[in-house]
Amino acid sequence: MASSLETIDLPHLPSLPVHVAVYQNVQNAAFLKSQLLAGQPEYEYAFIDASMVLSRAHVIAAVFRALNDYAHNRLKSHNVHSEIVFSLNPTNNIAESFRRFGISDSTQDLLVIKVSTSSEITHDTVAAHLSSAVEGTSVSFDDQTLFEFSDINKIKKSYKLGALPSPTKATDQVASKENVETKQRLENALLGAIALRGS
Amino acid sequence: MIAIGMEGSANKLGIGIMLHPKDGSPPQVLANIRHTYVSPPGEGFLPKDTARHHRSWVVKLVKQALKEARVSVADVDCICFTKGPGMGAPLQSVVVAARMLSLLWGKELVGVNHCVGHIEMGRLITGATNPVVLYVSGGNTQVIAYSSQRYRIFGETLDMAVGNCLDRFARTLHISNDPAPGYNIEQLAKQGKQLVDLPYVVKGMDCSFSGILAAIDGLAKEWGLGGEEKAKEDDAKSSETAAASESLEAKPTRADLCFSLQETVFSMLVEITERAMAHVGSKQVLIVGGVGSNERLQEMMGIMARDRGGSVYATDERFCIDNGIMIAQAGMLAYGTGFRTPLSESTCTQRFRTDEVFVKWRD
Amino acid sequence: MEEYKPPALPSPFNNTTPPPTLLTQGAEAHLYKTTSLNPSIPAALKIRPSKPYRHPILDRRLTRARITQEARCLAKLVREGVSVPALLALDWEGHGGEEGGWGGAWLMMEWIEGDVVRVALEKWEAWMKKASLDDEQTQAQEARVRALMRKMGAAIGALHKAGVVHGDLTTSNLMLRPVDENDTNEVGLDGDVVLIDFGLASQSAQDEDRAVDLYVLERAIASTHPRSEGLAEDLIIGYRDSYKGAPSALKRLEDVRLRGRKRSMLG
To answer: Topology of B130-318 in CATH?
Structure first.
């Protein structure tokens, strides 16, 4: 299976490279979740249900928040990977954040994130492990793919943003100026919620 | 040129004599004497009592000042007096005395704005050329900067003056008014360790103190720290209370309350001063007024000014606290530009804003 | 006198390459330009440095309260669709740069391109001085400023409708985000009005607070743009129709104009 694992050096936090992969039609979500819950060190990832993310910026905002808290010894959860899942949540309830954003047995499309917290974790080691561990089709970590996978209503509900208009996925309107603006406004609202959690 | 300055807008009666040498060399203080009306602990000074105090002391002080300055009446060029702002009755006692001297000696009168007196004296003593001025006393709280012939008020209190807030809390704690309630709060605050949460009210360049006073009065009551009985304990066990307050979550002491009040209100003052400095692009700050002699306020202001690459100018109690020479100094500057106060206009007024004065003597 | 040196950047921005560039330094905050979380998109970084003159407990309490207040206002306005920079990231417990420990707080916002209205109006006023226009042309030019004033009024109306007051409205806190197509060689007065700098903003739906917002802006226009002062009545026209509560806020504005910014004042 060809891997399209992307490695990102976040601006301002270049010493912590972040590896991101997206899979569709994942077959072994229940297994991955069980490994995570069992605390298997090689399965220490942020496993995120891709239907709960809107865009790259949405994901990166949560990653940045978690990494900044990690860099300053302020993690609220177990490790930086669980913190990424928690950082997607607009409230301080960690268990709730996993129910909402984390992998579930029924997850089909999966976002996987791994942070190079030590020099042993590299693009190649992560790519090698994921290609054997995840049964699914690797796709690219881009806005279009994420938007297709996203469940806008569920996202809006989790962030209590029901009053905001929803961007459409209809092919004839998706690129319209109005729809782009609608999506941007929703994204901005998500970023604000992530930044403000716990304030 | 020699001027007598007469100040009595609050509970201090001050007579000063100032010389501006004809050769342009620096002005000299020839005499600076003061007598303060001190009210009993737990009480403020009332206008009628204060006015009586000024009336009974003014002649004595003028005579003493002339003697100390080694000048005769003939040497005096003008008589400067505080026109306002201040308390009505005490102001009146002094203006009556000034008028009497004017008629008796045939000298011209110069009515002076009290706040401008503080500013000009501060500039003279410290050498600050064009500072942002924080004027803090029992009756005033203003952030002032000079611009085109006026001392403009950039920020001020929206309710009570900061000195009034401190004085009234001193009354709650029955702290002595001798030599000044604020001075005694400052001494007690030095033993304070624990910071209690108080409201912090800054709006732009303005601030408010009444909510803070209500809150700290409430705390004093809640912890049973007010009143005469507790005041007697201060001397007895100051070391003991300091030790007790170091444990966490401890009941606050009287010292802790004084400390917290000072830390909070002084932070507000430094903040609005810094805002004004940023606004006008000044790096100098001058503190005047009675509260300006507080060393903790001076220290905080100094840290702020240093971080802005500037410096703070402050004076000691001789010049900070109301006095006669500041009135002589500001009066003489006006006198030098031809300003006179005719007898018929030699009144006083409780309300007299700093920015009403046309500052003809500056560019 | 020593050169003024801004305090060291809080972590992680002490590692940022290229380092953030300082744009403005106020009494409370320093504004930098840096990259957002996407390296190809710029962002504005507002830093509230620790104030060493204050008691550390009070300093943290105030710094945190203020930065989160500003961030909450921004986030709320984004949700309500008001034209403000989006909140991108926030740390109310920033760590000091090299020395470590407490270093103030920071807030990252969307970067808004364009001039502030003050600059746009200054350019226009300078251009008007040089251009020799007949009455008709002058009126056409003034109509452009009137249109801008109406847009400003509408933007402030949207702000107030969302339950936020700005607290420091001046022509320096309103930006003109240029529209894509710039086909004229006239001085740009078109574009979307974006409200910026919510450092003194608060959530309020009181007529008094709304009226003071408008009054402060009217005064700012009168003092910094004498030529535009007569055109500022369009600010009110733009505001009046922008939301239901506008007429009542405008009624209060009449009182505020008579008595000034403060409710009451003794000598």
So the answer is: Nucleotidyltransferase; domain 5 (3.30.420)
